[in-house]
Structures
1.
Amino acid sequence: MSDQEVVNYLLAHKNMKIVQRKDMFNFSLDTVLLANFCTINKDVKHIVDFGTNNAAIPLLLSKRTNRKITGVEIQQEAVELANKNVALNNLEDQIEIVHDDIANFVKNFPKVGLVVCNPPFFRVDEESNLNENEYLTIARHEIKIDLEGIIKAAAFLLDNKGRFAMVHRPDRMIEILNVMQKYDIEPKRIRFVYPKVNRDSHVLLVEGMYKGKKGLKIEPPLYAHNEDGSYSNEVRKMFGEKIYE
């Protein structure tokens, strides 16, 4: 293991570990929120995670389901980390990591019931700190693939009535919903996440259904932190903590 790599428990899941690199994108609250938000019902036989990075989302999803999960990642170094994490947790029979470009990957992969994605949030011309290292730049900015490319690829990969779930920024919501509808993914669920009560929302969770009927549900707000800055009970449960209320 290189001196850039660190091994941590995956949140409160003491039976699960994750290797991360100090110079690369590390999983965040967004990752946890998405892994808990997406719908996994009996129709979902296979899940694909676009831009899996170090496989944090597949690892978290494995706590919810025993369905097959495929993580797709374009950066070779991230693929190597992801494979380490799958092996470290003895999940090779459930999780597969594919080194490929998302747009190319979907051309030959069988249709699936659920696609999830924690995508790059920033357009290249926006808040672009493009002098960060290449790993972080690709993870945070729409360099390798943009929002439309992700949604188009998801639509191509989904079964009829399959679902696409994504975490993003509220200020891009209208664009997200328009592009989803352009590619026949009907928005079905939205949840706004707030840092605290009486603050503006800073995270958007959205899920759509490929060739689904119209009808959008706005779910109750999710508050990430209490007034004292500690994580809310709802978020702590997502971390795998046992909460006695």
Note: Residues 133-143 have pLDDT under 50 and may be disordered.
2.
Amino acid sequence: MTTADFRQARAELEGHERPVREKLVTAEEALRVVEDDQHVAIGGTLYSRTPMALLFELLRQGRSGLTVSRPLSCYEVELFLASGAARRVVTSWVGIGLQWGLAGVLREYVEGGLATFEEWSHLALGLRYKAAAMGVPFLPTLTMLGSDLATVAGTSTVTCPYTNENLLAVPALHPDVALLHVHRADMYGNAQVDGYRHMDVDMARAARRVVVSAEEIVSPERIRAAPADTMLPHFAVDVVVEAPYGAYPHECYGRYEADTEHFDDYVSAVRAGGADGARRYLDEHVHGYPDFAAFIAGVGPERLARQRKQAEELMYR
């Protein structure tokens, strides 16, 4: 990133106003902010609070040429590749988990020259979001030094003015749009999260536009009653979408656990047909429904109740 790019991004963020007004819209309306060839950052980590309702809608709208970034990515990245929506992935990991093995679609696309995989360490990617959120062009760190990652990413080093130590200069990362899922929000966009916040705060403050989906929309009075739970204030959010079970089949801490059987079905389809298997998944679960609410209704109350019970069993008492 050049100095000019950094200053332009900082000026744009400083000049972007988010007044106190009602920001509640549908997912279809919210995702119109995303344009072809833009950079979309995905909140949460792996299958924790993945904004699946927003991602499904974005896939349904048929964008192309996107760059997607995420600290730890799950199979949603493969859906963006297989659909043709994305051509570049910036992350530290793609996959569901050890028991499901490597991300087959990612490997197929990268080895076939159909997509670019830009790999950073988990810490380095977080520092890239943080640098942008702080309004600085880079942050110094020890992470990645001595590894192939520093070479592959084409990074630069700096000399510490105090110790003369060699440090990696991790460049700021300014996504065009950040998509996040939270436990609750009010109509003004004040968003609250239970449990880990991951890198969502820095990601939101680094992005030019921020779209938040919430398990429930609550009153401003309820938000004010628990200010410590507020992850993002209204002036860090552009629009908010009500999306019950908006992370499913991923998990939302305390609300519902990840549906591993759903993961099994996806992996089986990919192992049998590669990217075609991922496209069949898209046809069934994304394009096969008019919206995310219909997809959730198709899951059925019994299965959702099972996932809620599993989440409740993991909560402290």
Note: Residues 138-171 form one domain.
3.
Amino acid sequence: MLTAYRFIRARDRIMRVIFLSCAVFSVAALGCICVFLFAGGVPFMLKTGLGNFFGTVWNIHTGSYGIMAMVVASLYVTALSTLLGVTLGLFTAIALFKFCPEAAVGPVRQLVNLLAGIPSVIYGLFGLIVIVPFLRERVSHSGIGYGILAASLVLAVMVLPVIVSVSLDALNAVPKSYHEGALALGATEEQSVFRVVLPAAKSGVFAAVVLSVGRAVGETMAVIMVIGGSPVMPRSLFQSVRTLTSNIAMGAMELTGDPAAALVSSGVVLFFFTLLLNISFSLLKGGAPRAQRRAQKADT
């Protein structure tokens, strides 16, 4: 009996050390990445000058390293792809939650989840062969299929599995009494889902949005294949442009010296961009419960 107790205590200690080591490794990895970015990027930004670095001209042959055009392109692509992906994915999750035949929920969810296993280069190839020619011949008024819209459509499909899976789990986590209580009070099926269940699951929906934004911001290969690649300020949905991630990937293996340092500095900007997005969503997510608590206190 004493031997078994000692074995259990030793096992618990070992597992505690393993878990702590994993946590420390994760923090250390993040710290190393931050040190690499800031040590290599911030000095170049100060050397070039923030005004020049956030300019609109990127030309490594003339020593111009303005990234503002690529920042704007990244914002456009992220916003449009998230809008399309979240809208389609959320309605898909709602359909699977309550408006789809029960026998079809499992197969449809598995098919949607299969999208997550497709390599990004396949999405880019599909966009290059199918989406870009379709936009060029049927939609674009300028005869150009590359651009923000093509990249946003590809990314919208890529983020669907995350949005559908996380949103559906959030909807299923809402107690059934919410839905049944709304029906008992005379609400229709649609009113019960959209006005009672969906607001109760908004925490999970916000998590899905944050994950989809992170995927859209960080995606590179598929975007490179359909966005064109010109480092110019976006003025149309049908225009060859370049995002921050595609700019880094296109020059990371070839450039040295100041151009390579400029790419690292672009990584610093991308890091802060992602950080600000996560903070904004966290504040937005936390503001609603506080407002609800204030309203309840006012009522009482």
Note: The two ends are 58 Å apart (CA to CA).
4.
Amino acid sequence: MIDLHSHTNESDGTCSPAQLIAEAVRAGVKVLGITDHDTFAGYDRALPAAAEAGVELICGIELSTELYGHSVHLLGYFLAAEGLAEFRHWILDLQASRRERNVRLAARLRELGFAITVEEAEARGRGMTGRPHFAQIMVEKGYVANLRQAFDEYLDESAKGYVYRREPQLAEGVEKIRHAGGIASLAHPVRVNGDVASLMPELCRAGLNAIEAYHSDHGPMETDLYLGLARRYGLKVTGGSDFHGAVKPGVLLGTGCAGNLRIPPGLMERLRARE
């Protein structure tokens, strides 16, 4: 089984890197991509456990980028060793913008009547504190019943507690991934604001060379649409559950939502064929 989209607690997941590897073994996932937001820390820390467990670990990352004022996520895979040091330096700037957003998010939540500080969140999230860590505090302090309510009512992009984070333009994110020798894949395209099909010529001109056709949010019609776009524009195809652990309890590693994720075994061979 293949799953190329997962998160650890080094970004906004709830499983430690070792726990994620254990979950992969339990679920029967043989090839696992760790795609934490703006960091490789989860991948780096999972390597020993993956080697011991016999899980093939794929180095990945998820970037939040901006396109026409809306957030669009990019997945980067197979970044070359010779380009990785420069790329790791670039993502330090993204981490700094995340920290600045967290300060404003804590202030916004206090405006809404929640006694929450950025220091409390950082005690949970360490260097990659994000909205799930604020949600955990809200649950612990009794402000909301569960993590889903925290996001639905306060932390999601359309919710009243959301604050904007400075993000690179999509073209810059694609360029950085491609410059480092990687594959730049459009993450969960069903979430993209606007018609993905009409945006595709522009995205391809920017250097996008893959699309995440298989995802827990995609039904059969969406998957067929994105596979068709991949064929039309000569794109690689990626896929994964977008597993986050307890923050998204309905999304299971390897199989998605109620078994809707089925990644064909030949996908990895086509991704490795870089031509």
Note: The mean pLDDT is 92.
